[in-house]
Write a structure and sequence with these properties.
This protein has 13 helices and four strands. The protein is α+β, with helices and mostly antiparallel strands and about 500 residues long. The protein has a four-stranded antiparallel β-sheet, covered by helices on one side. Helix 5 packs antiparallel against helix 6, helix 5 packs antiparallel against helix 10 and helix 10 packs antiparallel against helix 11. The two termini are about 15 Å apart.
Length: about 500
């Protein structure tokens, strides 16, 4: 049986605690029977996964990829497409030692423990106790059943107290449902950390190799420009050129030299970032990563699958759905406060004034009985709490929809950037070839006296600028691909590929 309530149909803002005395045995049996019959009785709304409309395909998806699917196996260790052993090693070490991932694991353990606490509320509680007391009664009191006035006596007692809240209206079960959803949310949060972590390691690694290649380009051009400056100075000494040409040549070389230290600083800082991502000291990776290596080659295209796949593939979307589930269940928890709470309590044990007779059969005592408490006046607190939970559930739904929209935008942005950057790289490669040819011609014409030295300097500057831009574009192609895989929700599937057991997911009650 399901019972639906809303904040507008709740009880009046009145409560008070009415506690009934011990009922006879028939009432106890009736209460237990009612508990069995009400196992399916739940107040509050039932959670239904939201149905979000998504486009049939990504607008920026290449036409030749239409209808292609993207398997989880392709996303599990997507960084393998770069075919770089160093990157593979960094990713593996990061998934083992990253502190953000360890924090997410700690939060997951907290959620498991909280779920266990919520589950414990459905069962009876049993407390064992024992005590010894030596007392003297007042001489100015009346005689009691255990002592004479002014008598010193002992009291030995041992037994247990039992307490069980019978979840008639499902408040405890709704609380367990919310804890299950919180556990699922924590698991998805851990997976989202894996998605971000693997993307950050790959992005920083590609940026490092890009910076190293830019430094090589800058040093190569600097060497050529300094050679030109020396030749110009020699020609000035013999009167072939003016001091202006020499000054221009030296200024260009110095300008190129000034660009190298910021690049070196950025490269070292990127190594520091990678070290922290791997849970190590910032400088720990300097010996391994300081030597320059080429930028890993990127495949021209990758399949993206369907937009609807994001709803089940991206951990942040699944986390948002789990948070919505938890918020919906807590509406039921708050609603259950409107209804009476049934308790079954009891105690039993042995009690005696003599140690010798403490555990005799005649020293036993027991009591058992149900009780009920029903809030009938609370100054609107319960109704306000229900309205609060309703608003929090609405907020969770809006956050879910926003997460879905942001995920679609991230994929579209990454697709556009990846496609257009490859066109940008092709044009830059053409420009580099043209500038190399222009530099050779301008140098030849200058030595023949047909053009001014300024043409040579301009050709050198243009060549360096386009070579630097081409290297940056090569790196951008890779980082755009990293952004695409991150937007598709790749990386958390690696736990299955590496044999690392995934944390068990909670199942809703």
């Amino acid at each position: 049986m399901k019972m639906e309530t809303t904040a507008h149909s709740h009880q009046r803002n009145v409560f008070s605690r009415i506690r009934l005395g011990v009922w006879p045995q028939r009432a106890v049996l009736a209460c237990l029977g009612l508990a069995a019959l009400s196992a399916g009785c739940l107040v509050g709304p039932d959670f239904k996964p939201p149905q979000e409309a998504v486009p049939a395909k990504f607008s920026a998806q290449p036409a030749d990829q239409a209808g292609q699917t993207l398997r989880d196996q392709d996303l599990a260790q997507w960084w393998g497409i770069f075919n770089d052993p160093v990157l593979l090693s960094l990713e593996k070490r990061a998934l083992t030692a990253n502190l953000d991932l360890k924090l997410a694991m700690a939060r997951l353990r907290q959620a498991r423990a909280s779920r266990g606490i919520a589950a414990g509320g459905l069962g009876p509680e049993l407390d064992l106790s024992g005590s010894y007391q030596r007392s003297r009664s007042s001489e100015n009191t009346t005689k009691t059943s255990t002592s004479q006035a002014g008598q010193v006596y002992n009291l030995y007692q041992a037994g247990f107290d039992a307490n069980w809240e019978i979840d008639i209206f499902g408040g405890l079960r709704r609380n367990l449902e919310a804890a299950d959803a919180d556990l699922l949310s924590a698991e998805q949060a851990r997976r989202q950390v894996m998605v971000s972590l693997t993307a950050e390691v790959a992005r920083n690694y590609l940026e490092l190799r890009t910076l190293q290649q830019r430094i090589i380009i800058a040093r190569t051009n600097l060497a050529a420009q300094r050679h030109t400056a020396r030749l110009t100075r020699q020609r000035q000494e013999v009167g072939f050129v003016s001091g202006l040409d020499t000054a221009n040549a030296e200024a260009q070389a110095s300008t190129t030299a000034a660009r190298i230290p910021p690049l070196e600083a950025a490269a070292r800082q990127t190594i520091h970032a990678l070290g922290v991502l791997l849970g190590q000291e910032p400088a720990a990776l300097l010996p391994q990563l300081t030597p320059s290596e080429p930028i890993p080659a990127s495949p021209p295209t990758v399949p993206t699958g369907l937009p609807s796949d994001l709803l089940t593939r991206r951990p942040d979307i699944r986390q948002a759905e789990a948070k919505l589930h938890a918020a919906t269940a807590r509406v039921g928890v708050a609603t259950a406060d409107l209804f009476p709470r049934f308790m079954l309590t009891g105690s039993a044990g042995y009690q005696s004034t003599s140690f010798d007779s403490w555990l005799n059969w005649g020293s036993r005592f027991w009591s058992i009985g149900p009780s009920i408490s029903w809030p009938i006046f609370a100054s609107g607190r319960i109704k306000a709490n229900i309205e609060l939970k309703d608003a929090q559930a609405e907020e969770a739904l809006l956050l879910y929809r926003q997460t879905v929209l942001n995920s679609l935008r991230e994929v579209e942005d990454a697709l556009v950037a990846s496609t257009l950057e490859q066109s940008h790289r092709r044009e830059l490669a053409t420009a580099v070839a043209a500038n190399q040819k222009a530099l050779k011609l301008s140098t030849l014409l200058y030595t023949e006296g047909q053009v001014e030295f300024l043409n040579v300097l301009q050709a050198q500057g243009a060549l360096y600028a386009t070579e630097d831009a081409l290297v940056s574009s090569n790196g951008a192609v890779g980082t755009n691909l990293v952004a695409l895989y991150k937007a598709l929700g790749g990386g958390w599937q690696a736990e299955a590929r590496t044999g690392k057991p995934a944390a068990p997911l909670a199942s809703s009650n």
